[in-house]
Design goal:
Layout (H helix, E strand, L loop, with lengths): L1 H4 L13 H28 L3 H24 L2 H22 L13 H9 L1 H25 L7 H44 L9 H13 L22 H7 L29 E7 L2 H8 L1 H17 L6 E6 L2 E6 L4 H17 L1 E2 L2 E2 L2 E7 L6 H17 L5 E3 L1
Parallel strand pairs: 6-7
Antiparallel strand pairs: 1-3, 1-6, 2-3, 4-5
Helix pairs in contact: 2-3, 2-4, 2-7, 3-4, 4-5, 4-6, 5-6, 10-11
Bound molecules: guanosine-5'-triphosphate.
């Protein structure tokens, strides 16, 4: 029954700005319809207050008509106003008809949440102010009569019913607010992921690499003693401000994207460890692959190569696509000697693998971080080494 009440409008998908307003309209109409039905029955059968039963019966009819019209037409703005006016006027009619006695004034507290949620801040404020002015007037008139406050069963019902309605409304509001924030937070993560990820390979992109390198190397400026010793810099543990910032948000999930190409999982960036070496990896004669087999095959080669390289990374290494057919790998806690050994192993591994049924080789330029280096100078040196590797005939590792 409840499911039937909540109609899905294809023109208002979950990311449409009016999606939650529609849910609230349906929710409100469900509440008002049930309330008016219950109140009609209570007034008719228990209190024998036919005047109020008639009023509630009218409310029930109006509520159902608005709901029927909304289901047919799906007009959000008009229905929002209709629901607000219906609720506000019926409540005020009831409050005025009881002259504010029997704690009927409580009902007026339902008007602000409905009107704010449905018709927005400005009109919500206007309607709420009008409502409370009428309530204030009724209270003032009561003080003129100086009658003792009457607290009967009717008062009890009014207080309980209003409290239940408030709880239901605020629960709904909190649910929508939470869901909106959650969606926003997920979007932000997605956007951040997109901004720092290479779409084709799923690796970090150049922008992210620059940021990571800058952060890693800038931390070294006032701590030159630890460099080249091979020891782990004690400042860079997991609680270190900078490494924590770098580690944050570094996990990219395994999910495939729409074209099914990028899906490599990246590990969190590790705490900084010295010495650091860097290598630039470049595919040899990649242009020929594009020329002979087309760019789509070229793309697949890039993706597969990225996967193979990633599979050979140690837990602390960081691999990124630098652009085109070039990749950069940051090797923490690795001196030049170890870096040469490691990149040589990488080169051999790729040379023995078949990628898209093709034999492929890579050239690598390797260098080690030195005092006074910044990200730019470090990469420039590695690039020079790569140039040497290319001029030495490719499929080799060169050092600078
Ligand atoms: N398919 C594909 N090709 C790319 C992409 N980015 C760059 N390229 C191509 O990569 C090729 C790079 O060519 P070159 O710089 O001449 O390098 P190379 O042919 O590998 O030659 P060497 O590096 O000197 O061994 C160019 O043809 C680019 O169009 C990409 O994302 N996808």
């Amino acid at each position: 029954m409840i499911r039937f009440w909540y109609k899905q409008f294809p023109q208002y998908p979950p990311d449409h700005p009016d999606y939650w307003r529609i849910r609230l309209i349906e929710h409100s109409l469900l509440i008002t319809t049930s309330y008016f039905l219950i109140l009609t029955l209570i007034n008719l059968l228990y209190f024998e207050g036919y005047q109020y039963a008639l009023l509630d019966g009218c409310g029930l009819l109006i509520s159902l008509s608005i709901y029927y019209h909304f289901r047919k037409k799906g007009q959000v703005k008009t229905t929002s106003w209709a629901v607000t006016i219906m609720i506000a006027s019926l409540i005020m009619l009831f409050v005025i008809s009881t002259e504010g006695y029997s704690h009927s004034l409580f009902w007026a507290t339902l008007i602000p949440p409905f009107s704010f949620f449905l018709i927005g801040r400005t009109w919500g404020t206007v309607i709420s102010c009008l409502t409370f002015s009428v309530c204030a007037l009724l209270v003032y008139l009561q003080t003129q009569h100086l009658e003792p406050v009457n607290f009967g069963t009717g008062s009890l019902f009014n207080v309980i019913e209003v409290c239940i309605a408030q709880i239901l409304l605020l629960r709904f509001y909190e649910k929508t607010r939470f869901s909106a924030y959650k969606k926003l937070a997920l979007r932000n993560i997605e956007i951040q992921k997109m901004a720092e990820t290479d779409k084709l390979t799923g690796l970090y992109n150049r922008e992210k690499l620059d940021v990571v390198l800058d952060k890693l190397l800038n931390t070294h400026g006032d701590n030159t003693g630890a460099i080249n010793t091979g020891a782990i810099n004690p400042r860079f543990n997991t609680t270190d401000k900078i490494s924590a910032a770098v580690t944050h948000q570094a996990i990219i999930d395994n999910s495939k994207d729409n074209n099914g190409i990028s899906s490599i999982a990246l590990k969190p960036i590790p705490p900084v460890q010295y010495p650091i070496s860097v290598a630039i990896i470049d595919i040899d004669y990649f242009k020929r692959i594009n020329d002979n087999h087309g760019h789509l095959v070229g793309d697949k080669v890039l993706y597969e190569l990225a996967q193979l390289l990633q599979s050979k990374m140690r837990s602390d290494d960081l691999l990124a696509r630098w652009g085109g057919e070039e990749f950069v790998v940051i090797l923490p806690n690795t001196n030049l000697e170890n870096a040469i050994e490691l990149t040589e192993r990488l080169r051999l591994y790729i040379a023995t693998e078949n990628i898209q049924d093709m034999a492929l080789t890579i050239s690598l330029g390797v260098t080690q971080y030195a005092i006074k280096d910044n990200a730019h100078s470090l990469l420039e040196r590695a690039d020079k080494a790569l140039y040497q590797a290319k001029s030495q005939g490719r499929n080799c590792v060169a050092v600078a």
